[in-house]
Amino acid sequence: MLLLPVVVAAGLAVGRLGLHGHVSGMRVAADLALSWALVAAALAVGERPRWRRAGWLLATASFAVLGADLVWATSNALWTLGFLLEGLWAALLVHLALAFPGGRPWSRVAQIAISGAYVATLGGQLVGAFVDPNTHDVLGLAPQETVAHTVDRTQEITAIVVGLVVLVLVVRRFRVLGGPARRAQGPLLVAAAVTASSAVFCLGWVIATDSVSSALETIVRAVAVSMPLGIVAGIVWSRLRRPELSELVVELPTGAGGMRERLARALGDPTLEVVYRLADGRSVDATGRPVSLPDGTDRTVTAVTAGGEEIAALVHDPALLDEPALVESVRATAGLVLENERLAAEVRSQLAEVLASRGRIVTAADAERRRIERNLHDGAQQRLVTLSVALGLEAARADPAAADVLSRAQDDVEGALVELRELARGIHPALLRDEGLEAAVEALARRAPLPVTVHGTVGGRLSDPIELAAYFVVSEALTNVVKHASATEASVLLERETAALQVAVMDDGIGGAHVTPGSGLAGLRDRLEALDATLTLESEAARGTTVRASIPCGS
Amino acid sequence: MGTRVLIVDDHQSFRAVARELLERAGYVVSGEAADAAEALDAVAADAPDAVLLDVQLPDRDGFAVATELAAGDGPAVVLISSRQADDYGRRVAACGARGFISKSKLSAAAFAALLE
């Protein structure tokens, strides 16, 4: 806190020098305004640990402004010191603009621009001091006006290039920043862009007219005051967000994720994510989907606790760390409401688990069906087939009475085989497994006791659960047509859309069908829901029946 | 000399009744095989005139064996299965076999009809 009185006192002393040395009042006022604004900003950023380097830059620049004004002194030594420090404040502001708020340059280009600014000012002034013809210059060992002029031009051209680079970089930075970072840093970036523009314009004017203008120097300093003011404005703007926190408590959440929107708005960070910690240790989003917390440096995680237990984590822009009081108040206020959302997320997560579990059960049941079908084929069917052929052979060489008995036995065995084949097909159709959905549905159509036409195509193989579900829809629907519809014909439509397989079975029968609990269609609906698919039935009396299924199958 | 037939089926009991059925009808059973590898070896060794070939074999399916034999200008192939032709869709017609007989309907007459 000593900084403020020291800079104020130094400013008053330098101002007195200027006025005593017949420097314009406007120029003295501009320098004092810039110096004092810089030190005020340095004090303002002091509360933010991550901005400490920026604070040092601001304080140094504040002294540098006054240091350059030592050229107003009558002492040759002070004049020379002022000459050496001329422009240093500008280099420090370039450094500040391109390394704000952390104090480290944003990029390689920013690093080069900052280095260029220091070399052009400190280096340029040191070289200039040796050749400057001014009689106050105690370092002027080889005064040469032409060389001194060339040094000035080189400095000015370098400064124009640096100014243009600053302009481009801060504009780009402003465009990529979002939420809290733009709120806190935006005003400085705008001020830096304006200051760089004015500096480029004034330096261009100096080169074009080949004359140094005290008025232009005053204008640039006056415009540069906007930079420390921008920093203070950013801090104030960030703080102005806090009253909106009351909305968190007053408003009730509206469905999954409603709280995230509200918190994002309160914190001014649209990228905010809320991750809920479930009792079993898993992390999920508001819809109950498992998520993992980021481990990089581009996102920051803030834990939210209730009753001593961590119930959620806020994943947000690291810039919010510069507003610890804001984050803390959000954390404290949101705890209770987030606890409600966490419970909702837990229920959704459990529902998702149940759905996934149902899918696994269907898959396991299908695998078991396949195994049973295979066992029937390899076991009972083979034995009955062999028995049937053997009975035929024996009947051929037996006496007529025995042959009659053997033939009837063979017919019975054949009947059992037919039933067994139908049973095996119903359990898990081999043709579906080997040849796919279209071939299996065409076989169903051929075997049906009424004309059935098949339209459409599915464009290749689909996953086993999808093919099985679609097959069973057609199989069950055709079975119902034969048993109940009194139809004269039926048709099947298979259509592969971008994200779903559409299946429809239509007949021209009596209609009036409905899904009853425990029926084949009700069982099918359960199977389809495990795939997130839907089954609908259109069956007005006397207008036929249409069974439709829409089965998601990805793209 | 009668037509020489190789019987290919992984069930020994079925091979036995098939052998009796064919021999009773005057065919000469040149050999028996229980899987695709044995079948191809037997065809190479004995050069039968026809093969009674089960679709479901432990190592490869009968369609693949029939396709391979057809490509090599081999013996006439008649496919058999405890399932029906309908259960195999277009594969029966596409594999180069002379035809398909459901095992329970196997008879010398049906076999002879496909070999003609």
Concise summary:
Chain A contains 18 helices and 9 strands. Chain A is of the alpha+beta class. Chain B has 5 helices and 5 strands.
What can you see in these coordinates?
The complex is a heterodimer of chains A (555) and B (116). Chain A has a five-stranded mixed beta sheet with strand order 5-6-7-9-8. A four-stranded antiparallel beta sheet of chain A has the order 2-1-4-3, covered by helices on one side. In chain A, helix 8 runs antiparallel to helix 10 (226-239) and helix 17 packs antiparallel against helix 18. Chain A has four domains: 3-239, Rhopdopsin 7-helix transmembrane proteins, CATH 1.20.1070; 259-349, no CATH class; 363-424, no CATH class; 435-552, Heat Shock Protein 90 (2-Layer Sandwich), CATH 3.30.565. Chain A is rod-shaped, with a radius of gyration of 42 Å. In chain A, a hairpin with a 5-residue loop joins strand 1 and strand 2. Chain A is an alpha+beta fold. Chain A has helices at residues 3-20, 25-45, 52-68, 76-85, 88-98, 108-131, 145-176, 179-209, 214-224, 226-239, 246-250, 258-267, 324-397, 400-427, 430-435, 437-447, 464-485, 520-529; strands at residues 273-277, 283-284, 300-306, 309-316, 452-457, 490-496, 500-507, 534-538, 545-552. Chain B has one domain (4-115): Response regulator (Rossmann fold). Chain B contains five helices and five strands, in the order βαβαβαβαβα. Chain B is globular and about 35 Å long. The two termini of chain B are 17 Å apart. In chain B, strand 1, helix 1 (12-24) and strand 2 form a beta-alpha-beta unit. With 116 residues, chain B is α/β, with parallel strands linked by helices. Chain B has a five-stranded parallel beta sheet, sandwiched between helices. Chain A binds chain B through residues 377-378, 381-386, 388-390, 392-393, 396, 413-414, 417, 421, 425, 429-431, 434-435, 439-440, 442-443, 446-447, and chain B through 11, 13-14, 17-18, 20-21, 24, 56, 82-84, 86-91, 103-104, 106-107.
